[in-house]
Protein 1
Amino acid sequence: MGIEDARDRLIVGLDVTGRAEAEAIVVSLGETVSWYKIGFQLALSGGLPLVGELARAGKHVFLDMKLLDISNTVEKGVESALELGASMLTIHAYPHAMRAAVKAAAGSPLTLLGVTVLTSLDDGDLAESGYAKSVAELVAERVAQARDIGMGGVVASPAEAAAIRRAIGPEMAIVTPGIRPEGSASGDQKRVATPADALGAGASHLVVGRPIVGASDPKVAAEAILAEMAKA
C-alpha cells in the first residue's frame, strides 16, 4: 500500500470541544489528511457546520452520530446528514434503524455504517447491560443483519475485523476505531490494535483520534501513522 492509498483510509477523529480547536487541527494537518470524523463532542459544541465546510474543501467527513430512534426520526436524520454533505454516517445496528436509514439514503453516495459493539465495551459490560451474548456473538449477529439490510459497512473493533471480512466479503466497509500506534496507551478503549494489524485483519478505514489530535505536532503524528499503514 502506498501513502496515497493510506491517506484515503485514515480518518482523523476531531474529538475536541469547539470549532476553533478543530479548525486549528485541520489547518495543521493540511493536505496530509483527507478524511475527518465529527462526533458528538464536536457537533454539540458548534462544530456541525464543519461537515459542509470540509466537504466543500475537498475533504470527506465521517459523521459519527450513532443514530437510534423510531424509524421516521432516523430517516429524517439521514436526510439531514445528506444535506450537510457527509460521506459516512453511523447508525446503531438495530434492524429497524438500519432499514430506515437505507431507505432514506437510497440512490445517494452516503455510506451508512452499522455500529456493532462499541470498542470501549467487553463481555462484562454486555452482561451488565443485560445481553446474554458475548461481544463476538453480538457483533456477528449485527454484521449479518447489516449485510442483509443493505448497509454500506459496519463499525467494529480490529479484534473482530477478520471474522467480519469473511462474513461480508470484500465490498462493504469495515471502519475500525481503537487504533493505537506502536507504543501508544490504550486509554479507555478495551479492544485495540496497531494500524498495520487492523489493515491486515481486513479493515477498510482506520479512525485515529487522540494519538493525532492530542500530539504536540498532529501533522508529524499523522505522517507516522500513514507510514505505518503503508507498510501493511
Protein 2
Amino acid sequence: MSLVELEPIGTVVGGRTEVEDDDWGRVAAVIELDGDRYTEEALRGLDAFTHLEVVFHFHKVAPEKIETTARRPRGNPDWPEVGIFAQRGKNRPNRLGVSRCRLLKVDGLQVHVQGLDAVAGTPVLDLKPWMAEFGPLGDTAQPEWATELMRQYY
C-alpha cells in the first residue's frame, strides 16, 4: 500500500471553536486559502455556485481515538452497532471529513460559508462546487437511526 501525503489548501477561520454534535446549520465560518500557494485565481467562478463540498481533516481527533470496528453512533444504546464505514463519525481511520455547506461569498482568498461542520483551525484539504448532477441517481435509502441522528444536525 502506498503512502498518501496531503497538504492543506487552507484553514477554517471563525465559526465554532469546539466540536459539537448538532446545530451546524446556523454556523458561519470562513475558509481561508493558503496565500503562499494560491492566488484569487484559484477561486475564480466559485461564487456562481450556491453550495460547496469541503474535504477536511478532523485534526482534533487523537490517533488513539480512531475507530476501526463497529460501535453505536454517539454511544446511543437505542441504535445498532454499525461499522465505522457505515456512519459518518469523526473518529475515522484517516480522520477525513466531507461536508456540504452554503457558499455565502468569496472575498479574495476567503470563502465565507454557512453550515460547515468543521471548527476553527481545521485544515481544509479540498473545495469543490456542489453540482446537482453529482447527487445520487435513483432512489436512496437509509436506516431510521441515521434519520434520527441527523434530525438536529443542521
